[in-house]
Amino acid sequence: MSSGADARGGVPALVRTAAIAAAAGMGGLAVALVAGGAAAEQLIPGIATAGTLTRWGLPVSRTIMDLASALTVGALLAAAVLLPLEARRGAGAAGTGTLSRDAIGYLRAASWLAAAWAAAAAATLVFTVSDVLGQPVVQVLTGSELSSYVGSLEQGTALMIVVLLAVVVALLARTTTTPAAAIGLLVMAGVALLPAPLTGHSASSANHAIAVTGVALHVAAVAPWVGGLAVVAAHAMLRRDRLPIMAERFSRMALWCYIVVGASGMMNIVARMPDPVELLTTNYGRLALAKIVAFGVLGWFGWWHRERTVPALHEREARGTKNWAFARLAGVEAAVMAATMGLAVALSSTAPPPPTGTETAVRTLLGYDMPPQVTAGRLATLWWFDLFFAALAVVLAGVYLAGVLRLRRRGDSWPVWRTVFWLVGVATIVLATQTGVARYSPILFSVHMAQHMTLNMLTPIFLVVGAPLTLALRALKPAKIRGDRGPREWLTVMLHSRFSGFVAHPAVATIIFVASTFALYFTPLFQSLMQDHLGHIAMTVHFLLAGFLFFWVLLGVDPAPKRLPYPGRLLLLFVTMPFHAFFGIALMNLSRPIAEGWYNAVDPPWGTTLLQDQHTGGAIAWAFGEIPTFIVLIVLAIQWYSDDQRQARRMDRRADRAARTASATGAPAEDDELAAYNARLAELAERDRLAGERGDT
After folding, report:
1. Disordered: where is this region (predicted)?
2. How confident is the model over 116-150, as pLDDT tens digits?
């Protein structure tokens, strides 16, 4: 353990580095605001302005909010993931460790950082109201505009959610001491990152389907990258133990964060500026170009860390000496990151170039123009790129194939047919979310219902039979340090958690699978989700997860908290599937269209009436249930037969072992169930014979 003197000796260096990074962030913000024109007062006749305080206070508070959120995520990441757990006394199994003293210290630091995050978000909320209404901050604070803004506009609601979640993290991090709780706080902080950026320019972009997903991926990757580096640098400056392990884990994570940040950032630029010339001819484009340059510089820092400083840490630790090169380089990199974040805030405060095409009501709602009349050929060929589900498909296929490849390299086998099932399931996701089905599903209820049925009742069957959890448990390596938790240990903990035991209970999984469909379509929730791209993504992901959970209980070979016998599975199948037929019949008998406001807004000139299209969707829901039922019956029959064969072979092997033991020792084969059964029959027959002889006598 590092001495207190060493830690105190590193405090001045840490303070200097933090001050330099903060100055770099604010300096980058100021320069970018001036260069992009956002710092200049916009005087429009007849419209009041909020004043200089709001014009500068809004981007400054947003920069502080972004930095505080990244540092909060970094501190929680260090406590839960980067620092290894310490083994409990007397605990021999891996994954049963506790948080170290340094990890608990980072949890307490996360509490203070989350409080600063909440305060900065609250200040951003006040300045945003002042900017939108054109009123000074004092007038906003003394009037009633603040409360009405929070409840009526998306930006206000999003910032209030951030404040509430950050306060919860700040309070719980004061008392948390378990690894599971630290992971939970990390997930909560990750959720709190998203509401604010998703209600900015991305939500109103012409290509908002790509922009919204791109911003979400961008923010989700930037925060652990920036915050993680800051905490690792602080750990090095304070001369604390386990720095090589911490730096190596961060380096692996940072590489993936860098890839995601680069890909999502490029998607955001393309969504807002389809013409590359605008990178040089507009203020927004020039700021984006400066951010690209800064991103390249950060990539060089990451390469240098990976190739030079991280290996040097292990060498220095083996010799028992300290390596200040990593701390100095990480400090400089943190300052560049802070300046880049200030530049990013200025970029988000600068209006992007206006769209070149004619903006219509349909284009504003959908993100694309009205497609031509629907045909089977156009459903198959008129593809529509959805970044979220494209990324999901790539990740699902890539991670699964990587697991299979690791097993093959290790000399272990994995059934080819399971891989084929998994890839077919991924292919159905692509067909349902990237083809013309995705383009027409927001316009026609019938196409939406076909997409729903595919993702909810067909795709999960193939994914479940692919046995992804079993593959992960076999491919992932155990944690190298005794008591620590790696991905394999965390997966095991999740499978044995109370939450998994609850949601994977057959009754609960069936209720989620059936009741959520009725609750979605027969309430105003469906129209609310259709009006927002994030809502549409959430709805589609729910279809996929609810189906996966149900068929995991029904067909899964993966480890599960509770497994039904095969007769129980058949009964569950025949009880559940008719509910989807009832749902389809209910849709066909409705006399008023569902989500009438949405479908009237995107009403295609070549479409049928809303009610007729809804009845077609009901017919699809009614008829579609036959396909998955037939597939499930076939899979269940094969699984049942294979299980009986395995049990028969197991009994035969037990009987052979018992027979060999009896032959070698001369003792009766007590463990041979078949021999015992035959001996029992022989004994009963002998009793009957003796009883008959006594009766004759």
Report:
1. 652-671
2. 999 999 999 888 888 877 788 888 887 777 777 77
Closest by CA to 229, choosing from 84, 341, 113, 70, is 70
Residues 633-641: contacts with CB under 8 Å, at least 24 apart: 633/573, 635/461, 635/465, 635/555, 636/554, 636/555, 636/566, 636/569, 636/570, 636/573, 639/555, 639/557, 639/566, 640/566
Cα separation, 219 vs 183, in Å, equals 19
Q: How far apart are CA 288 and CA 298, in angstroms?
A: 15
Give the relative orientation of helices 468-475 and 487-495 as an angle to the nearest 10 degrees. 140
- How far apart CA 77 and CA 152 sit, in angstroms, is 35
For tokens 């004092």, the residue is 138
Q: Nearest to residue 76, comparing CAs of 157, 193, 161, 156?
A: 193
Element (H, E) at 572: helix 566-589
Residue pair 208/367 in contact (Cβ under 8 Å)? The answer is yes
pLDDT of 273 above 60: yes
pLDDT in tens, 421-461: 999 999 999 999 999 999 999 999 999 999 999 999 999 99
CA distance 536 to 540: 6
Tokens matching residue 406: 């690791």
Q: What are phi and psi of 158, to 5 degrees?
A: -65, -45
DSSP state at residue 322: -
pLDDT tens-place string over residues 337-396: 888 888 888 888 777 777 665 667 777 788 788 899 999 899 998 988 888 899 999 999
CB neighbour list of residue 49: distance below 8 Å, 6 or more residues apart: 41, 42, 43, 55, 134
